[in-house]
Design brief:
Family: Belongs to the GcvH family.
Structural class: alpha+beta
Number of domains: 1
Number of strands: 9
CATH topology: OB fold (Dihydrolipoamide Acetyltransferase, E2P)
Function: The glycine cleavage system catalyzes the degradation of glycine. The H protein shuttles the methylamine group of glycine from the P protein to the T protein.
Order of helices and strands: EEEHEEEEEHHEH
Shape: globular
Cofactor: (R)-lipoate
Strand order of the largest sheet: 1-2-3-9-8-5
Subunit structure: The glycine cleavage system is composed of four proteins: P, T, L and H.
Protein name: Glycine cleavage system H protein
Helix content: 10-25%
Largest sheet: 6 strands, antiparallel
Strand content: 25-35%
Radius of gyration: 13 Å
CATH superfamily: RNA polymerase II/Efflux pump adaptor protein, barrel-sandwich hybrid domain
Number of helices: 4
Length: about 130
């Protein structure tokens, strides 16, 4: 299981795990639960440049359509094709096999992101 306290978060309900200069991004279990059963995921292309707070993809569920925002500036270095093929991974394993994109970033850019405690407070205390 992923150590949720080691991750960074956004107010748009994305989580970020950083390894060197690569940030793995997914949506939180809170967001996955609010969306309901995810049936379609659209992700940016590998090699595309993304800017923080801009829409870079789409997550559709049986209830609604949600937008995926880039949490940081950078270049997409990998996308999770398994999630595109089986969108239910976003619901079943949001912090593991349900990751969405990997972005090459400047680690200093993480300073503005939320820690676990701040994210839990943002969501009303729901873990």
């Amino acid at each position: 299981m992923t150590d949720l306290t080691s991750l960074k978060y956004t107010a748009e309900h994305e989580w970020i795990a950083v390894d060197g200069d690569v940030a793995t991004v997914g949506i939180t279990d809170y967001a996955a639960e609010k969306l309901g059963d995810v049936v379609f995921v659209e992700l940016p292309s590998v090699g595309s440049t993304v800017a923080a707070s801009t829409v870079v993809g789409e997550i559709e569920s049986t209830k609604s359509v949600g937008e995926l925002y880039a949490p940081l500036d950078g270049e997409v270095v990998e996308v999770n094709d398994a999630v595109v093929a089986d969108p239910s991974l976003v619901n079943s394993d949001p912090y593991g096999d349900g990751w969405l994109v990997k972005i090459s970033v400047d680690a200093a850019a993480l300073d503005g992101l939320l820690d676990r405690e701040a994210y839990v407070a943002l969501t009303g205390g729901d873990e």
